[in-house]
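Exercise: predict the structure of this protein bound to 1-deoxymannojirimycin.
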Amino acid sequence: MQSERVDRIVDKVTQVKIPWTNGTSIGDSFRNSELTLTNHKRQQAVRNAMQHAWTGYKTHAFGKDELQPISKAANVRWGDWAISLIDSLDTLKLMEMEEEYLEAKEFVRSMDFGRAAPGYMTQVFEMTIRALGGLLGAYELDEDPMLLQKAREVADVLAVAFEGSLVGLPMSYVDANMKKPVPTTRVCIAEAGTIQLEFKKLSQLTGDPKYRKIAERASDVLETATKYHSGLYPIYLNTINGQYDHSASLSMGAGADSFYEYQLKQYVLHDKAEEKYKDQYVASVEAVKAKLVAKSDSGLLYLGQWRNNMTVFVREMEHLACFYPGLMALGAQVLDRPQDLTIAEELARTCYLSYKTTATGLGPETFSFSKSGQLSPAVDDITDDMLPVAAALGYPKIFQPNKYGITPVDTRYILRPETVESLFMLYRVTDDPKYQEWGWDIFNAIEKHTKAEVGYAAYVNVHDVNSTGNWIDSMESFFMAETLKYLYLLFSPTDLISLDEFVLSTEAHPFRIIKNNETVLAD
Ligand code: DMJ
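Solution:
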């Protein structure tokens, strides 16, 4: 009798829903308790890493752009906009580092974005994704109107970039002190096509449509300019006539990456209301699968690039392009395209193997897929004559393919997030715990080789385990904004930044999906 009562009580208690979840009950929670415990420990290990990175920044560089972890100094290479601090705000908030968050926020309150370090030219793309995105991401979690006001100040400085072009493309730089664009004739697609999430979110939050209109105009130029290969866009455009430079490469790496990312994410941001962005994404993912995805001799899928009007295919993948499997996974889920998921999983495996097969477990900045016996660069038209030349130049062993046929070309690891970003997205989409295991491997390599006395340091040669001899005096803001955030979320319950409620910007800032599109898009 007694035990029946106890059973009934236990039964009732286990059905109680945990309030901050999407309906997880205490019972579910216990059933997953072993997994939860491991994940919780891992999540805390990542939080400790954030503590270490932030303490280094706070002690030696607070309010400056970046910590230099080896010299224990600060730099202002982004024009003295406290960029590591702003980029980290929402990571601090998510990791419940409240004291640090409030201290950082107070610093933001004192900032004047109407000025930059004298003579410094503000980079529009980077400041959009790091500064504007960082302030908006923090605002989404905190709703402090000061953050929105500051975001608007930043956007008003950056919007000047569009005054330099009659066709609606941005200049790459602005003079923040003079409020003038720096004229340039060329802009890359990532620069013109990665303001959209930030500017549209700002319009929604402020009710002022002008930011969205600027962003849409740039998107329209990118789409209507003549292209020779449907779904693939040369990386450069002319800012005077708004046309592509058709000799520029077609790639998913530097200069292109986040443009493709924002095709899909604009569609998600406005809760699937704008069909044209879906169509653009579908055309590009089909073209990427047909023209950029290649298979190495060892059977690995990778993303190469085309050069010289699509006459030379370079069998080289940039670490930057490792975000793409995650994007494909998101697209597979949002657009119900299971056919993309298999390829996304294969590409993510290649990115993971680019880490796993180095001596340190860190991933190189670029890696190629050579034919056996061939040295990098892995261009199809390389001849065997080059082999003795390369040997004579003393190419070290590291430039030879490993057993998977992966050859590191640029051996640095600069604390980039893209591979763990894809692992996070794939985990959320597939629920397959192997992505957590892979992320844990990468996190351990980061801890072992890049953790300095103060902060974390970029690394020269992923094949050399002599850590201290390989440190570069640099900790980019994206390490705290993205790499550690994605790792933390990888081990968190899936309702923390649920993908049903948020879309993550290219710098991993969480923007709430805009559900009331009718009013927002009407202006
Ligand atoms: C980040 O600043 C962004 O993810 C950007 O889109 C490209 N990559 C860097 C970090 O590697």
